[in-house]
Write the structure tokens for this entry.
Amino acid sequence: MNRYIIALGFLILGNFTGFSQKISVSIFNDTKLSTILITPTKGKYKLILGDTQELLRENQILYLSRLGDSVVVRDANRNLGTWKRVSIVGETNEDIIRVKPIMPASPARLYDDNLSFYVEFDRIMAINLIDEEKYIAAVVEAEGGPNREDEFYKAQALIVRTYTFTHLQKHSAEGFNLCDGTHCQAYKGRSEKDDDIYTATSDTKDLIIVDSLNRPITAAFHANCGGQTANSGDVWVESLPYLTSVPDKYCTNSRSAFWERRIPFKEWKEFLAKEGVDTLKIVKNSEMNFEPRQRPKTYTVYGVNIPTTKIRKQFKLRSAWFSISVFKTEVRFSGKGYGHGVGLCQDGAINMAIRGWTYDKIIEYYYKGVKIVNANTVNATDVKLDTLNIQEVLGPEHLQLPPDSVRTN
Ligand SMILES: [Zn+2]
Ligand SMILES: [Zn+2]
């Protein structure tokens, strides 16, 4: 473990009260980097190698490659040596740098602020030390998509900031705050497509969502609830008072509000048998039909209760809200919504914003009894509590907006 990183980590992790600060994010975290090409594209960058530093020229290309536990640095003309740590530090507030993995090959991304590289876990680690608000804007874009309403972006920014605030220690053992994968929050480089996203983030600077006891909430969200959000306790082991079911008339005209999936009857029968259903009892297939009026928690068949979330997982359904029609050779699921259904419904929130709802009203609609407060007023000791464990239960899905729910109009 690199000592500098640890020191940096403590500096950041120890400072909960000053929230507007830099955080360290491991980028290309799911890629085993061994050769990278980096190029400053805007601002002014300093390259730090050991005790030496030099200014980089705009568009100067640096090649970094792994050699054992060190990083070899070259540019077009020179070999700049082999180092344990390579740091590239932005000198203005608007420094942008391009990072292009060569081995393995991966599309280039642009990053704000500072980068450092070192070898650990048999790969080059690439750490982006970035202004927290710039990071939040980039995650809002990755998770909310481009060209949305400002008030939707503000609501999404509060969700992202609340998560960030409560998870700064998630990777502390590895020496950085967060990774850029769905394990933490999707971060695909700087927010590029939409200036409004950065403005919406700055307009809500420092604001997070807390429960009635002033503890940051688990701000779960999903693409589309299908017309009624889910109780957290019906989907996960733990039930949270602010994550309770609410009706939602704002998302039912969206593309992802309805879906259908068919599976062979044979698979269905095998599944039921595995769940303890005596399939010899089946006289007519239509006896297994199911048509819930509301978002269902369980499906009951021949006296056996099966959680709908289990059926969703087994057959990779878009949601756990569906009716079932059982025919001779196939089973047809007709469903509503996309995602787990807990917390904020993105399609609903987008439509509310279009209709003039402000972000605070949107937040208060989907999360019951919560307050929006400045993160600086929240006690650092209240941060951990139940939030960390529950996020594990949520899994990566709550952070992803499925591509087909992205609105094009
Ligand atoms: Zn992570
Ligand atoms: Zn909805």
